[in-house]
Every structure is written in C-alpha cells, then in structure tokens.
Amino acid sequence: MALGAITTFWSCENMKSSEINPIKSDTMEIDCQEIFDHIIACQREFDGNLTFEKTILPTLNEIEELLFVVNDIELFGEMIDIIYRFRFRLRELESQIKFLDDENITNSQNLSYILNEMSKFKEII
Fold first, then answer.
1. Which of 18, 26, 42, 93 to pair with 53, CA 20 to 30 A apart?
2. pTM for the whole thing?
3. Which is nearest to 63 in space by CA: 21, 35, 28?
C-alpha cells in the first residue's frame, strides 16, 4: 500500500465536536471513535479490578491520549509517527494480556474489540 494513501477524515458536516476522526487508507478504515468508546466501556467494566488497573489501564490511557491526537494531525509525517506509536501500544497491550490470569479481562468483548480494531495498524504501513 502506498504510504501517501493514509489520511484522517476531516469532513465535519455531520460530526459532533467531541468525535474522534477515523484513520483511512485505500483499503481500510480504523474507527478511532469506536476504539475510544470501548476503552471507556473497559474502564467501566473493570472499575475496581486491581489487576486491570495495574496492568491494562495505563496502556489504555496512553492509547486514549493518542486517539485525541488524531484530530490534530496536519502533516503526513505526523500520521506515520502516530501509527507507529499505536502499533507499539498494541504490542504492549497484547503482551500484558498474554500474562494475565484473569479470564474476565482476557475474555472481555470490549478489550477484544480494541485489539481487533487496533490490529489494523499492523496492516496500514
């Protein structure tokens, strides 16, 4: 895939001001808003779960911060940097989950959605 084909979607006609733009390429779209929504759902789902709060939550918070940066990207080089940062956080999250002993976390549909949607970052570059 050509690197020049990666963009964020800036059409704001029907977009709420708090909505996070998707990242699009010629062949796929990464729904950043849905990733954000599922991070919030995970935080609610595992509120008070010490294993989640110590291992997974810090990484999800970093991913959440990266999602907010997507709307402010103006240059192609910034987009490439963000994609690589997402890929790094995805590897980190996958490694953390691998060593968890809590089936409630490892079987979470919200966490599965985040992993599946973020796996598209491996394919985009």
1. 18
2. 0.81
3. 35
